[in-house]
């Protein structure tokens, strides 16, 4: 049920409490030693054995009914009423066995043994059935909650896997396309570009199954990716990264790369209109700000248009927080909530 008590432990505790409450009047009567000379009064030995019998009796019926009701073992041969009939039969047999043993021990007290044992044990039996039904319902509710939590985690993981599957092909396509352009041009920067591309691709493979990564690792990846873009676009693209490299933060992998890639893909990058991308931390709003000049291309760029929605979903699913997008005539900014590692 929780970290402290299991359902079986609760059944054991309930058995002791029920047995003590049922036998308490006779325990108090037996303690009046000045009345012990009168015949028919219970003695300590008799009460001790009946107390043990009631504890075992209660625990047996709680656990038996909890198991049968939880697993519905009485189906399909009988209905619930038939199962309670079997309970009544077991009650009669076990009580008769105990009474028979006690009569052999106390043949001079048949009324005491018969009357007090049967009536009190019947009360114990009925209480045990109520406790068993209560624990069964409680355990079913806990099982349903655990199952719902498991399904929720699986659903979130499936959504995250789907988001990663959308991000990775997009990134690979643009990186390989940039390398192809450099090779066609026969640029001397091909080898340095290839080395950085190898670093970037290796990182993208390493983080595929990770939900969050240290910010320092993401910064190394972002710097490598920025190097690839500046080699490709030259002075037409300026990426200013003022983010701290060793901050104790976490971030969904490839987040900054996606925002930089989006800025390049949807805006004009040319000598006449250089594109400036700025990355900085905003201590007031506790966010990471990625901004770029708002100079959209005349024709919409090819793509699915799911980059920013996917990124927002990742933050929402992983942290419960959302990103903030601010657009003006001259600038486009995305604010990412900072995720502390502490």
TrEMBL record:
Gene3D superfamilies given in the database record: Histidine kinase-like ATPase, C-terminal domain
Coiled coil: 134-166
Highest taxon of source: Bacteria
Ranges where the Signal transduction histidine kinase internal region domain occurs: 158-237
Segments for region (Disordered): 289-308
InterPro entries: Bact_2-comp_sensor_kinase, HATPase_C_sf, Sig_transdc_His_kin_internal
The protein's name: Signal transduction histidine kinase internal region domain-containing protein
Organism: Larkinella rosea
